[in-house]
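Appendix B: complex inputs.
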Amino acid sequence: MDRLTYVGHRLLQLIPVMFGCTLVVFFMVHLIPGDPARTMLGPRATPENVARLHKEWGLDQPLINQYLDFLSRLIHGDLGTSLFYGIEVRQMLSERIGPTLWLMGLAAIIAVSIAVPLATLAATKKDGVRDQAIRFVPMFGLGMPPFWLGIILILVFGLNMGRLFPVGGYGDGFFGHLHSMILPAITIAVFLAPILIRSLRASLLDILQSDYITTARSKGIPEKRVIARHAVRNGVISMVTVLGLNMAYLVGGTFVVEKVFAIPGLGTMMIDGILQRDFTVVQAVTLTFAILVVLINLVTDVVHSLLDPRVRF
Amino acid sequence: MKRRLLFVLAVAAAAAVVGGCGGGSSDSGGSGGSTSAGTPQPGGDVVIARTQESLGMDNINVFDNESIWIFQQMFESLYTVSADGKSVKPWLATGYDLSDDKLTYTFHLREGVKFHNGQPMTSADVKFSIDKARDPKTGWGFIDVAIKSVEAPDPNTVVIKTKYPWAPLVADIALFNNAILPKDYAGMSQKDFYANPIGTGPFKWDHWTHGKEIKLVKNPDYWQKGKPYLDSVTWTTVPTDATRELQLKGGQAQIDEFPPFSTIDTLKQTPGITMNLFPSTRTDYLPMNFKAKPFDDVHVRRAISYAIDRQAMIDSVLFGYATPANSFMPPQVPYYDKNSPGLQFDLDKAKEEMAQSSVPNGFSFELSVGSGDDTQTQIAQILQESLKQIGIDLKIRKVDPSVQFQQQQEYDYEMTFAYWTMDIADPDELVSFAVDNKTAGSFFTDYNDPQQIEWTHQAQATFDTGQRQELYTQIQKKAAEDAFMVFLYYSPYRYATTDKVQGFQVYPTGNYHMEDVWLKQ
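Resulting structure:
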């Protein structure tokens, strides 16, 4: 099977995955206790107002009818209207997905930029002081709660040290977004980098022991070139898999960082939707997350095959 | 016209009182507003960092304060709430006449008021707006239930007839749902109109990026000449308390909405920051479900109310920034009775009441606490200790806030948390919700006292302020004796601003007039 057919097949697999998602998410959000009408009205929830909203939102219909209605609209590309905001969820998603993609993308770039040189430095001096330090120090990043680290970064770089970065927000235009996203992306990268460092270091250590590296060295190729061209390139393959898995995990896990930095992303949209019981929003965001996870895994596999020609589909 | 003159005098007197205590200290530990110093300077942009996103600009259906406080900068009503929250003053109207049978109100419209699209405001717009607002199918339609008809006999006059004598009418007309919008939504559909709202207010719609910000810009043709001073106001959504505070300190925001009580003392000491505590109408309660035994027993309810040391609770949970509540009505509401005998901490009396109750040896019950709500959790823990002393075993039941609401409204709870903030400068809305079971189950306690309901209806139809005071005093006294809810405390609105922000004042109803705000250079 060539690569394109493989990608096509994988994309087709999205259909049953999405169908499963709709089923689980729809019934889960509808069956857990909590009523959007009462949440919205608060203490002013007169029985008439509750009934009016239920009727307006179609919540007075049997659940199965609501599900079929949701599915038929979905097939026509209509994700529905947010119960709380009264605007199309598609519009909300298009506004919110940008910040989340920015955050994840930049975090991945920063994490890789930290991990590759550090892991290489560690692997080339195994068990030395440098190796120990590189294995040990970044572990603090894994242990630090993101909301705490975020606030500290804001305090230091947003306030005290000459206000280098904005205190939260998303900014305007490409450079505005970039400027605003650096601190939150670092917050995530600090968590992500130690995982990447450990996996890349481990595979580099294996590779540096392998015969083809010995051959390369015996042919007189300079050590720097051996590491860069022969070792790291192969080591990165396993790191891409680890990165892909963690990015998929991060899709739903960026909300804490989004909240701390006041980033209008999908994570906060999802959490608010769940708290308010805004069913259409929760359904739409979950489906978007499902698609993102499948796509990230797909991209990981494709990149894997590009890096390692032995991989066949 | 005599009545109109009298009214103008009354308003002038009220304004003098308000002026005299403008931004003064509150009963709830308030330190007043950021009073204007010097001559207002035009220009500048203000960013308000707030805790939550708005839901929408639909003034007849939206219930969340984060939306209401914004659209009130664009939409205005014929009357508005005064700065002390206790009366109304003419706004888009200049006054009204009331017929002798108390059924016909003739409002005289202010001349020279224009909508943001340049169209002048006329009585046709008023009729259209109030007719839309009073439709019982809308969210706030219940406020206008007494209105029988709205007529527009000439461009500057509006006649509102009521079905029966209805004292709160002008206070109701001042509510945001009765704000004046252009007739037929200026040719737009209702949905399009609320996506691009047009009103007569000091600020015009600019844009809304969902989850990020709402921006309004100066209306240069505003009817109050010289106002607004600011070029624009932007409301951003910054849910984390610490980030809002850092944005204020870093100059990214000029107003920080609701800094936590724990940070008030520090913010007061911070150079360049003004920490404002505005007297509010927020009152916190613990409703008890009469359908769950033994809360149908008045002695049990009184015992619980007596056993709570509210001041100790305020000191430890709210850092002293609140006042124990003696009535279900807050002090910033007309007809509040400061002598209302709301049951206060008295352990001996609590024990006496328990001894007379159906459960003299104590009992066990669950208090619903919103998960993730630190204030509720801390209060619940204090209550747990307090009630132990009278033999009551309180168990904490953590539930999602949305479920907490639902369980309360379906009477699937024993005791829970609730609060109220006033919308209008008349106690009627609160009193109806609190003691008239038919409105919403008396805060879903199922408290149902025919005497209270009768007094409530009498107060609605009584125009004499002395008689109304008498009725509301009786209602508050009986509510306290029946202890259908625990009245906990009155807490202020908290806003931190940079020192440059001048003239920012939050009214007890929670709204603020951004046209009065200016920036010191």
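Residues 36 and 261 of chain A are 27 Å apart (CA to CA).
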